[in-house]
Amino acid sequence: MTSAHVLAIDGPSGSGKGTVAARVAGLLGWHLLDSGALYRLVGLAASRRGIDLADECAVADCARDLDVVFENDKVLLEKQDVTNEIRSEKAGATASKVGALPQVRQALLERQRAFAMPPGLVADGRDMGTVVFPDAQVKVFLTASAEERARRRYNQLIEKGFSANLASLVAEIRERDERDATRAVAPLKPAADAVCVNSTAMTIDEVVAEVSARALSAWPDLRV
Ligand code: C5P
Question: Which of 112, 128, 130, 214 could form a Cys-Cys staple with 123, CB 3.0–4.6 A?
Fold first, then answer.
């Protein structure tokens, strides 16, 4: 399917995979695919065009036409900086709705695969190892308990000056896990050949070290 090296990191929200993927890509000097950002961008583009999110064909057209540029740490949608806007809770909820539409997932498939270029790609998402890059040489499924993920989210919200309730965050996370794991198309689950890493009691540095070690053993010529 692709000849470039691919390291797939999948897992639920709050498992730390976004941070880990970015750090490992930086260490290896590889490209990074933040596939969640694509779903967030489709949701935003569709909302801006006034498209009904239940209109699967129209949302899939939006995904196919997506005019997006990833420039260093910035994300441009139709030449406009939307880096912060796509990180909102609302954008996350919309992404989750458009991500449940099979035609949208299909429309984003080739766009995601095009990120696999030399020297290699670290791909972060929910279905990187199962659907988008089934031939990835290294697949990591990163998890953490719902309580720990809620605690991390709680701390982020408090740091940003928002109010938050830990118990309701745990409930929301459990609900989202259930929805993601049971959806008909590309449900969140580890690939059969993925290594599961439970980050509940690990620091980010420890997870980065663990994932980098997997990459180094799969590709012994790599230097970090
Ligand atoms: O990873 P992130 O939180 O940015 O993803 C936002 C939403 O996009 C997720 O909640 C999920 O529903 C969806 N998504 C997906 N498949 C991916 C990445 C994200 O369905 N590969």
Answer: 128
Closest ligand 1 atom to Cα of 132: 21
Among 3, 2, 5, which residue's Cα sits nearest to residue 28? 5
State what percent of residues in the chain have pLDDT above 90: 78
Q: What is the mean pLDDT of the chain?
A: 93
Atom 12 in ligand 1: which residue has the minimum CA distance? 96
Q: How far apart are the first and last CA of the chain?
A: 26
Residue 2: is its pLDDT beyond 60?
Answer: no
Give per-residue pLDDT as tens, 178-216.
888 888 888 899 999 999 999 999 999 999 999 999 999
Q: What is the DSSP string of the chain?
A: ---SEEEEEE--TTSSHHHHHHHHHHHHT-EEEEHHHHHHHHHHHHHHTT--TT-HHHHHHHHHH--EEEETTEEEETTEE-TTGGGSHHHHHHHHHHTT-HHHHHHHHHHHHTT--TTEEEEEESSIIIII-TT-SEEEEEE--HHHHHHHHHHHHHHTT----HHHHHHHHHHHHHHHHH-SSS-S---TTPEEEE-TT--HHHHHHHHHHHHHHHSTT---
pLDDT per position as a tens digit, 28-81: 999 999 999 999 999 999 999 999 999 999 999 999 999 999 988 899 999 999
